[in-house]
Amino acid sequence: MQIMTSSSTSPTSPLAAAAHNGVAAAYFNFRGAERVPESHVWKGMHEKDTAPVAAADADGGDAVPVVDMSGGDDAAVAAVARAAEEWGGFLLVGHGVTAEALARVEAQAARLFALPADDKARGARRPGGGNTGYGVPPYLLRYPKQMWAEGYTFPPPAIRDEFRRVWPDAGDDYHRFCSAMEEYDSSMRALGERLLAMFFKALGLAGNDAPGGETERKIRETLTSTIHLNMFPRCPDPDRVVGLAAHTDSGFFTFILQSPVPGLQLLRHRPDRWVTVPGTPGALIVVVGDLFHVLTNGHFHSVFHRAVVNRERDRISMPYFLGPPADMKVTPLVAAGSPESKAVYQAVTWPEYMAVRDKLFGTNISALSMIRVAKEEDKES
After folding, report:
1. Contact of 292 with 235, CB cutoff 8 Å
2. What is the architecture, at CATH level 2, of domain 64-342?
3. Residue among 316, 289, 292, 282 at smallest CA distance from 305
4. Rounded Cα distance, 154 and 83, in Å
5. How far apart are CA 93 and CA 187, in angstroms?
6. Cα(195)–Cα(320) distance, integer angstroms
7. Handedness of CA 198, 204, 209, 211 (dihedral sign)
């Protein structure tokens, strides 16, 4: 076990500079860990982290739904609607992204995390620089324990500028990496637009003449995206650590490419239990986010999910987050909601919603509940 901090590096190294600049992330040597240090031991901080893991029922009742979108027909649309309503997440096949393209981007992500610590530290998140760079995302630093994971976050338009920090010589490794990430971005962006159309069709809102036609067009034209690369290293005692704590995504929806080693789990209710998403080769995972929950007036719901780690094998995960621009008010489409066709949630921008989430961090209060419109009977009482 080794924790690499400024005290174990020279004053001029990237690691020392990162620490000097206030980058609040420990550069932990997962490869050298023979046991789990206390800094990474989790003991069920939140009740959702203690729900049992479910095996699939004999009738498939706890099997994560699989949606084949290759035909784009009514059956596929119905499957999307059912999965988004009942689960908030599903496996997507028949999406048209080649297995070779997915293998290329996964291989490049693995190569990035295999770099020496000093090389990765050149891309460290800058103090006050937002959510871009290598290291621990700022919100994860608020947990009392550390995750068993490495991460790198970047916006697709900045791929080449961002990774010049890691590969300043801009050599062949740099170009191979950037080309794979640009291909992934292009594929996921196009797929996101196709899936968005299926979501709106499932809600009966598709087409320019439909109630949500103009909204769909505006969302499609203004979708913002972020890529986050995760490495969940093998762990000597996986039952005592967390790869990624239970959470919901805040945006519209997320595509997740995971390696064949399973580790993503979705939370099912009544009774609460975690269901592991299988590592199906070539499949992508779709997770509905909070703002899509708001947009669809609660018709499609966001889902708590988390990541666990493996004793024997590393696991790569690559979420591709899609959401609105910061200045867009996400307004519930009432036709997608309750029978009385009233908005269940207040209209909210992404920064406004994140401010609510941040304020409630560490509590059991849902941010969605805080922007829910009170019913008349609630007002009277």
Report:
1. no
2. Sandwich (2.60)
3. 289
4. 29
5. 14
6. 13
7. negative
Token reading at 90? 């599903």
Query: Residue 199: which residues within 8 A CB-CB, separation 6 or more?
Result: 80, 84, 253, 292, 296, 300
- Report CA torsion sign: 112, 118, 122, 123: positive
Q: What count of other Cβ atoms lies within 10 Å of the Cβ of residue 357?
A: 17
Residue 355, number of CB atoms within 10 A of its CB: 13
Q: What are phi and psi of 58, to 5 degrees?
A: -60, -30
CB neighbour class for 235 (10 Å; exposed up to 12, middle 13-18, buried from 19) = buried
Walk along the chain (381 residues) and give the pLDDT tens digit of each residue: 222 222 233 334 444 444 433 343 446 888 888 899 999 999 864 444 556 776 555 445 689 999 999 977 899 999 999 999 999 999 999 999 999 999 999 999 999 999 999 999 999 988 766 689 999 888 888 888 999 999 999 999 999 999 999 999 999 999 999 999 999 999 999 999 999 999 999 988 765 555 567 888 899 999 999 999 999 999 999 999 999 999 999 999 999 999 899 999 999 988 899 999 999 999 999 999 999 999 999 999 999 999 999 999 999 999 999 999 999 999 999 765 545 578 999 999 999 999 999 999 988 899 999 999 965 445 444
CB 79 within 8 A of CB 91: no
Long-range CB pairs of 118-123 (<8 Å, 24+ gap) are: 118/9, 118/13, 118/14, 118/15, 119/14, 119/166, 120/150, 120/152, 120/166, 121/13, 121/14, 121/15, 121/17, 121/18, 121/27, 122/14, 122/165, 122/166, 122/168, 123/152, 123/162, 123/163, 123/165, 123/166
270 φ/ψ angles, rounded to the nearest 5 degrees:
50, 75
Residue 318 pairs in a beta bridge with 257
Q: What is the largest CA-CA distance in the chain?
A: 67
At position 19, the amino acid (one-letter code) is: A
SS3 content of the chain, % helix, strand, coil (to 5): 35, 20, 45
pTM: predicted TM-score of the whole model, two decimal places: 0.88
Give which of 315, 323, 329, 262 is closest to 292, Cα–Cα.
323
* Interatomic CA distance for residues 187 and 29, integer angstroms: 33
Q: Give residue 265's Cα distance to chain centre.
A: 12
